[in-house]
Amino acid sequence: MAYNPKTNKGLGDLFTSKSRCMVKREWKGFKDTFYDFGRWLKCYGFMLIKLGGHPILLIKAMLRYRWMISYLTAANMIDRHTIGLRGKELRYVHEELFALVHNATINVKKILERDEHLRPNSKKAKRLRENTVMFDEMTPKNIMWGFPTLDWMDVAMMSIGMPGEVDQQANVYYIDKIEEFGMAADVCPLPAAECGAAVVNDVPILGKTYITSTMPCDGSIGQTTFMGRYFKNVPIYQVRPPQRFNEPEVQEYAVKNLEGAIKFIEDNYNVKWNWDAFWKNAKDYNKSTQAVIDKWDINTTDYPQICGGALSLTREYEFQGAGMMDPYLYKTQLKTTKMAKKGYEEDKAKGVKNYRHRAIVWACPAHYYTNFTYWADQTWGVKTLVDMECMLSYHMYKIGDEKQAMIDMASSYERMMMRSHTNGGYVNSLDELWKMVKKFNADIVIMYDHVSCKNVGCLHGLYEDQAREHGVHMIWVPHDLMDPRTVSRVAMRDAFNKYMTNVFREEPIDPTFVEYEDPLTW
Q: C-alpha distances in angstroms, 346 versus 39, 339, 358?
């Protein structure tokens, strides 16, 4: 416990309303503080080694793109997720989140090497672009498993998605710009920010084709339109998966659409699909997915191990940001699962239960407050066992069956972030929730209330009614995904505090952490 009742000093004292970072580092005891600082050095040391070879391009990129500066605050993001943690929990989170830094740093290096805005006259950069496929965020990057000679980049994830999770202010400028351009202010901030980046010419051009997608909302339709105009000289293919994917009859359509994407890549890059390369990646995907499922199984017991944002963010970026093709992320999943199994055995032998409540997170979380679950744990003892964002694409591939492989790819893509639980209909949104509540033996559902999302908003009453029927506490936490001005971090905490105080009638573990000001912090 970080709070000292004798001195009345706690985690809330690390923050001030006038600072962009914590006013001081948390003292975790000599051993853990030494380890924590060592990981800080490892984070920036790796970034320096990988990006230091391009100092002029890096400075040019920071002057060219507003979002590029946010990557410099990566260590602060890790600090927010490790605050209050000690021992093996501290090490779990550092291992998981450094894997994200590792992947993002390599992708930033790729941007520096091939971006047309940064290197318009470079022949080398042009050759790299000629061999690169650009993807939107909600697209099946695992389609690249069959194209080992090509490279690919997720332009939306690198310019909007990850910067917004590292720095809460990263997307605000782009949201304002697209609203000035005429987009309605109630549109989801994710597609709005992507459109805003396109309007101000802040999306890097990294390849010669672009694969986009569809989502059943007004913001996504607008985003597809704006990005199509932005990449006006680039061939575009739109992947259109079925939204009601539980029925096997729809998979024929889904497979045809994916086969169209494969042919699109073959025709534009003069390459052929490689089944040997595909099977290698599929095997790694199965192993990594099983590792994540093993972590879930541990968390269904009385002795959960890897919880909160570290569990969800790693899976989210492994699948969407890395396409399940990053060797370091793959090794990290296997390593942390092994660590979790060892930690489980240790806690079970000692009978250690360091929580008051067992919770699961449902609905889309705030990108600008990914460490909210750690705050709830340190302040109220509410342990988040699983996050809806990590419960994506856990459909296994049947190795060796080419026809089934295409169905498996479609099934995996249909179960990715937002597609399944947020937009996948009643069965995947409501019925799946109560299955998970029972599986994880949760007494609390932290229900993120994304105020700009029309899909989940229409189910609000049904969630409330069914929570009462199941005897589960549902705590609604409002947010606006990527715009902290609409619902601040303070307002999110206040909603949770009121429920814990007025309904549970409980006292906080750390009173200094209940209310504190962090409007400017990254």
A: 24, 11, 20
Q: Are 387 and 364 in contact (CB under 8 A)?
A: no
Distance CA 370, CA 374 (A): 9
179's tokens:
């609203």
Domain boundaries, the chain: 11-513
Which residue type, as a one-letter code, is found at position 501? T
CA distance 522 to 60: 22
Sign of CA dihedral 167, 168, 173, 178: positive
56-115 tens-digit pLDDT: 999 999 999 999 999 999 999 999 999 999 999 999 999 999 999 999 999 999 999 999
Q: What is the pLDDT of residues 171-203, one digit of tens each?
A: 999 999 999 998 888 888 999 999 999 999 999
Strands of 451-497, DSSP E? 473-479
How many Cα atoms sit within 13 Å of 203 on the Cβ side?
Answer: 28
Q: CB-side exposure of 416: number of CA atoms within 13 Å? A: 25
In sequence order, which ranges of 118-161 are alpha helices (DSSP H)? 123-130, 155-156
**For the chain, how far is it from start to end, CA to CA, in angstroms?**
24
Closest CA to 66 of 200, 207, 219, 192: 200
